[in-house]
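Quick log. Single chain, no ligands specified.
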Amino acid sequence: MSVFHVDTTDTTALIRLEGELTIADAAALQVALRTALRRPRELVLEPAALARIDIAALQVLLAAIRSAPSFRVAPSPAPAWTAALERYALGAAFAST
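-> predicted structure:
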């Protein structure tokens, strides 16, 4: 079972995060994000079903948001998302543009 799903439209790349997203998933996530962002698209992160995320996966997501023309985090992220951003002091980095 995948811990992330990528859905794209002409203008948006929606990344749904669920379960435990760790270093074991980081390389596949990076490839999926690079593919989704080949065209300029808004990046939308939806971490509502996330149970855990580690720093490797956060680094991949951070690189992706820096390459996207705009990004946002969908409302109501999972407590695991909020806790990880606090733990690694990344709240400002993931503040929506």
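The CA atoms of residues 27 and 56 lie 9 Å apart.
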